[in-house]
Structures are given as structure tokens and as C-alpha cells.
TrEMBL record:
One of its GO terms (molecular function) is oxidoreductase activity. It comes from Amycolatopsis endophytica. This is NADPH-dependent ferric siderophore reductase. SUPFAM superfamilies: Riboflavin synthase domain-like (SSF63380). Residues 6-144 form the FAD-binding FR-type domain. InterPro entries: FAD-bd_FR_type, FNR_nucleotide-bd, Riboflavin_synthase-like_b-brl, SIP_FAD-bd, SIP_fam, SIP_rossman_dom.
Length: 274
């Protein structure tokens, strides 16, 4: 299997508007953004490219005001990249573009809502007409060869990417999902072709229990002709990576495991549960 390909894009800062916001589950909220700056536009003398996303685990960065002062600090747009001020540093959080419809001019983002999060607090109260600045994606990781089946694993922060993976695969592609969520109310419909194993951690704190690696060990394994993608809490992902690489013996090009967040660090790179 050929190695994954990274494709780099010009980084553009866009001011977008909330079109709709609604709950998918009691703890997952979808915000639909739109605006003229999803297309090509001109700012500060630069011709800026339309919004572009190629891979299910692409990410954009959303910018928020400093909670104590309400002051919004942004990077400055340059030609194909952003210049970041040293002080104060912009407050940004990374999110997966759940779906992008260029024709309709709509970008969908899904947020895990929890107490105390800057981004989740914004999403919980988002209403049509609210404005937000969004940068990226700056790159996409593309799988160049189609495997016999896909394995997608993660906690609730990975569900937007998992949902997009499934939607963008060819119909009938075999895909197994192992997903950890608080409880049955947090399960999402992930498409008719996905064989989903839901793991419920109950009242345990996110990232505090090891459910994913044991579930992967017990999983029916059709063949080693698989592409395995996983994301979630960094410590939990170490166990998932060890299982896939060491216990299953999968080569590096068949495994992509990412720490989306780290327990106890509220901005790594997203807040826990966001």
C-alpha cells in the first residue's frame, strides 16, 4: 500500500455567519456556516482562494474572544499564510469540516457540548446571524489506495470525522466503527454500510477509561488489507496505536492515529470533549 499523501493548501482567514444551529444528540450540536467568504474574495490586496476540503480528517481553526476581556485577537492574512501575533495570542480551536456544500455555500461543523468550553459554549448559544472567523484547512491527508475494508475508531470528538469518512466512501465499502460515547443517547446514525460497536463509559470522565483498545482486540478481523484511522484522547490513542501497530502488526502506512485532545490540558488542540 502506498504511503499517505499530504496535500497543502493556502491558508485563508474567513469571516462566516451562522445559518442554522441544532442538536444532533443531547451533547452534540451542529452549526451550519455560510457567507460570501466561502468563495474566492480579495482582502488586503491578496486574491484569496475558495474554501476547500479534501479529506475526512481535515480541520479548520475557529477563533474566539478572550473570555475575561471579550477581546477577539486574530492572525493577519498574508499571501497564502497567516501571521500570528506574539501577544496576545489568538484563541483558536480545531474542528473537522463535517460536510461542505460549495454549491449551497454551507459548511457544517459538529460540536461536543460540555460545561466550561470556549468553543462548545459558543456552539450551545449560536444563533442565525452570529459571526465567527475560520481559518483553513491548511492540508489534507489522502489515502492513495482503496483497502478491502476500513476501521474507524475514537471517542465522541472523532464522530464528525468518522461520519464524514463513511459518507464519502463508495457505497457498499466494508467499514467497521468502534466508538466510545457517554451513553445510548449519544449514539449517532452513521450510515447503512457501517458495522458499529458503541462503547458506553457512563459517568466516567472522558479519557479516564480504556475501552477502545480492549474492544479492538475482541473485534472480528476480516483481513490485514485494512486502513485504520483513530482519534481521541492522547493517552487512550497510545493504547490504540500500540494495538494496531504492535499486536495486529499493521505497517505504518495502514495506520493513522491522532491525539485530538489531552486530558487535563484544555487547549490540546481542542478542549476535552470538543
Amino acid at each position: 500500500m502506498a504511503r499517505r499523501e499530504r496535500r497543502w493548501f493556502p491558508i485563508v482567514l474567513r469571516e462566516l455567519e451562522v445559518l442554522r444551529a441544532y442538536d444532533l444528540t443531547p451533547r452534540m450540536r451542529r452549526v451550519v456556516l455560510g457567507g460570501a467568504e466561502l468563495g474566492a474574495f480579495r482582502r488586503y490586496g491578496f486574491d484569496l482562494t475558495p474554501f476547500h476540503t479534501e479529506a475526512p480528517d481535515d480541520h479548520v481553526k475557529l477563533f474566539f474572544p478572550e473570555p475575561a476581556t471579550g477581546v477577539l485577537t486574530l492572525p493577519e492574512q498574508d499571501d497564502g499564510h497567516l501571521d500570528w501575533p506574539d501577544e496576545p495570542r489568538p484563541i483558536g480551536r480545531d474542528y473537522t469540516p463535517r460536510r461542505f456544500d460549495a454549491e449551497a455555500g454551507e459548511l457544517e461543523l459538529d460540536f461536543v457540548v460540555h460545561a466550561g468550553g470556549i468553543a462548545s459554549g459558543w456552539a450551545a448559544s449560536a444563533r442565525p446571524g452570529d459571526r465567527i472567523f475560520v481559518a483553513g484547512p491548511k492540508m489534507a491527508t489522502v489515502v492513495p489506495v482503496t483497502p478491502a475494508w476500513y476501521l474507524l475508531t475514537g471517542d465522541e470528538t472523532a464522530l464528525p470525522a468518522i461520519g464524514r469518512w463513511i459518507e464519502e466512501l463508495a457505497p457498499g465499502t466494508p467499514v467497521k466503527v468502534v466508538a466510545e460515547v457517554p451513553g445510548p443517547d449519544d449514539e449517532l446514525k452513521l450510515g447503512p454500510d457501517a458495522e458499529v460497536t458503541w462503547l458506553h463509559r457512563g459517568d466516567a470522565a472522558p479519557g479516564s477509561v480504556d475501552l477502545l483498545a480492549p474492544a479492538l482486540r475482541a473485534l472480528d478481523w476480516p483481513s490485514d488489507d485494512v486502513y485504520a484511522w483513530a482519534a481521541g484522547e492522547t493517552g487512550v490513542m497510545r493504547g490504540v496505536r500500540d494495538h494496531l501497530r504492535k499486536e495486529r502488526g499493521l505497517p505504518a502506512e495502514r495506520v493513522n492515529v491522532t491525539g485530538y485532545w489531552k486530558r487535563g490540558e484544555s487547549a490540546f488542540p481542542s478542549e476535552p470533549g470538543e
